[in-house]
Amino acid sequence: MSDVGQRGLLSIGVFFIILVIAIILYVPLGLVSLYDVVPLVLALSGCWLMGLAGIRASKPQKYERGPFSTFAMGLLLIAVGGAWLFAYINLLYSLAVVLLVFGALAIAAALKRK
């Protein structure tokens, strides 16, 4: 199996684990409400994309999305999931999360090596 196929299979496995974590936090433990499951899955998927960016940086492929782009998509997923989670508490917290992620993305873009 090619390296890209292995990463795809790894991503599918991690996504299933993220779903299981969200279901366990909702059903038996009751730590999150039903409205928090989807934003939690989005935020955890963003964390996985940031980890995947590190894997891609170690072995870049020729015609594959770059590691910085994958890292940026992970940050944006975390921003969407975090803003959605905090929207039930206070909209200012949602705005703060989005601004924090955009600031981190701007710093990462400025420090990006060519």
Descriptive keywords:
mainly alpha, about 110 residues, about 75% helix, 4 helices, single chain
Account of the 3D structure:
This protein has 114 residues and is an all-alpha fold. It has one domain. Helix content is 77%, strand content 0%. α2 packs antiparallel against α3.
Would you tell me the structural class of the helices and strands? mainly alpha
* Percentage of residues assigned to helices: over 70%
Beta percentage is: under 5%
Gap between N and C termini, in Å? 30 Å
The biggest sheet amounts to: none
Please state the CA-atom Rg, rounded to the nearest Å: 16 Å
How confident is the prediction overall: mean pLDDT?
Answer: 86
Number of helices: 4
Overall number of domains: 1
Order of helices and strands: HHHH
Number of strands: 0
Task: List low-pLDDT spans.
Answer: none
Shape: flat
